[in-house]
Design brief:
Pfam families: CBS
Structural class: alpha/beta
Order of helices and strands: HHEHEEHEHEEHEHEEH
Keywords: CBS domain
InterPro entries: CBS_dom (IPR000644), CBS_dom_sf (IPR046342), Diverse_CBS-Domain (IPR051257)
Helix content: 40-55%
Protein name: CBS domain-containing protein
Oligomer: single chain
CATH superfamily of the largest domain: CBS-domain
């Protein structure tokens, strides 16, 4: 695998794994197929959530029940819906993401598909959390704020000690740039838009990550 400037920038982005570690209560908001819609409403109300994930005994996702699903069924059928098993009203085809997915990709998917809740699974396909769009939005805003602050600080300090490259420039080229006297930062730009920046330390950490992955 050839490491590029784009790969290094992407490696700096926060992952859902980081967001989940902050909120340890997330995996608790689940039900099984034989739970009732009333049970789902209790979780939604008590935990102020937009929906509940339905899992099997192995914690694999088998459905999701949103607040909108419940309201729509009550409107069409009546309050008896609250006594139904969630299996009757849940959405069975569920879009999930891996816990290593970055927050930017997740936010884009949630906006494009109009999801308010998104189950997050580990490599074994087991549910580890259900994130809400506000959580992912906050994480992305925090990333942008911190990234912009660092970039402005670097530009103010470095002046002529940075070089601009495209996203597909390989690591060998970037390494050669850092070996040039005075170069402390590589700015990654495409079509006039700044995608991010890479410092010497970040470049070395990215190389170590790739080397470690190959070794394993």
């Amino acid at each position: 695998m050839t490491l590029t400037a784009h790969d290094i920038i992407e490696g700096k982005r926060p992952r859902l794994r980081d967001l989940i570690e902050v909120d340890l209560s997330l995996p608790q908001a689940t039900l099984t197929k034989d739970s009732t819609v009333r049970d789902a409403m209790r979780i939604i109300s008590n935990e102020n959530r937009g929906g509940v994930v339905v899992v099997d005994d192995a914690r694999a996702v088998v459905g999701i029940l949103s607040e909108r699903d419940i309201v729509r069924n009550i409107f069409s059928t009546g309050a008896d819906v609250l006594n139904w098993m969630v299996d009757r009203v849940m959405t069975r085809v569920v879009y999930t993401v891996d816990e290593d997915t970055n927050c930017q990709t997740t936010l884009t998917e949630m906006i494009d598909k109009r999801f308010r809740n998104l189950p997050v699974c580990n490599a074994d396909g087991k549910l580890v959390a259900c994130v809400e769009i506000l959580q992912v939005t906050h994480a992305k805003l925090a990333e942008l704020t911190e990234s912009n602050r660092k970039l402005m600080d670097l530009l103010a300090l470095l002046k002529n000690t940075q070089i601009t490259v495209g996203p597909n420039v390989c690591s060998a080229t970037i390494k050669a740039m850092f070996q040039t006297d005075g170069v402390e930062c590589v700015i990654v730009r495409e079509n006039g838009k700044t995608l991010g920046f890479i410092t010497k330390d970040e470049f070395l950490r990215a190389l170590q990550r790739v080397s470690g992955a190959h070794a394993s």
